[in-house]
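Model the whole thing, not chain by chain.
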Amino acid sequence: MSDLPEFDGSRLARERAAQAVNGELTLQRCTVCGKVQYPSRELCQYCLCGDLIWSRVARTGIVLATVRVQTSMHPFFREHAPWPICSVALDAGPRVIAHARGGAIESGVRVEVADERVSAAHCVLIASVTA
Amino acid sequence: MRRGRPRGYDGVAVAQPYTEPYVRGSERNATWFLGRTLAGVLKDSGIARDAVDGLVVTSMSLAPDSAPAVAEHFGMSLRWLESVPCGGASGVIALQRAARAVQAGDAEVVACIAGDTSSRGSFADLVSRFSRFSMDAVWPYGAAGPNAVFALITAAYMQRYDVRREDFARLCVEQRENARANPLALLREPMSAADYLTARPIVEPLHLYDCVMPCAGGEGFLVLGEERAASLGLADARVRGIIERHNAYPADAVQLRGGWAEERDALYAQAGVGPEDIDFIETYDDYPVMSFMQLEDLGFCEKGRAAEFVRHHSAVVGRGGLPHNTGGGQLSTGQAGYAGGYLGLVEALRQLLGRAAGRQVEAANLGLVSGFGYVNFDRGVCTSACILARGS
């Protein structure tokens, strides 16, 4: 997957990439209320506290839906179509959209979601079926 | 939670629906489409451009300009200026803002205009940088824009409520039948269920005819006092109720309902009518699954039963069902950026003013218009709806 394309992200996405470790899941956690959130925000959506840390969180979750990208605005995904992506409700709280490793994963299936580094400034989430 | 009912919209007239004809692509920018739309709503109104003292601007492709730049560009001196950036919910929300400004005396004549351009590559540029959440958390996963998000929602909806593509086909095909009588629609050739079902996949389960065609164009209307409208001899429609809801049900794992479900009782209470009294409906059809949800959440059928509803209530004008997206909707006319968020309202005004030649709903006295938009991450944030009545 390391050949995945790199995209411009926000400052927070670059910060997250800098903290991410392959195979782990690193998301924002509020130092006051302890909640985990994604997509990365400027402050905590639950208590509006501005003091957030990057934290290793549980990788486990359940697939909400899986689809296959056939028509993309980026040549990488066009070449690799159909490209499966899925939405996942993480046990840690947030919902994420992730690349689905190993083909389409049915909804309701337990998965692990982990970061995969594409470059120093960009990492992506990969969902794979829990062994 | 009990809350007070908002004041009515007495004394407010809505007039002069205008569509700046859509084109597949244009080298002109959004300001051109906004300006031609402004000229269109004023044409034959008896209102000089200088008599417009309020303006609502909606555009997705206006950057680096914004509403004040538009006012100066058009040489307008205004005492009230508003920008509504709520995507497909913008038309109804623009109407709400303008109606309240007129009622309060903050403005006398408000032009509500939406316009966008489209050119090769511009759609990908806009979509890839639509919002920070979408840049960080959606675009890297397939670079498919809103098609990816709505494919995920559609897949979840189909599974949860046992809905098949054939069910969506029925609505899409019927909307196309309505479009055939709409010279403003870009897609007017006949479409069969087989055409829909065998179209090429975009993001499965979405295929080509589940997705709107990006284009350029404009939509607009005027909001003014009823006495002013009468003195000018303008045919008008009246506002019976308006609701909006932003970021509804944030804890729902998948967006299988929208803010309409939370606000529909308030909407019908304002209007003093129920869904059974509505003569036609214009839903925001960025994808057919969203029109299904609007039928459910606005009370036309129970949750999860829209497929059955469309089987028994034809959307085609004159076929005895519930006329729905009477000009063909965005799925047939094309989506001119955020102007798509005004399209249903402008079409509803045409119906209520008796100007929908060839697709006129008979005895169109009450119309419901529903808006939806701003896909920031994994769902649309903004929802709106209004009930409009034929003027006196």
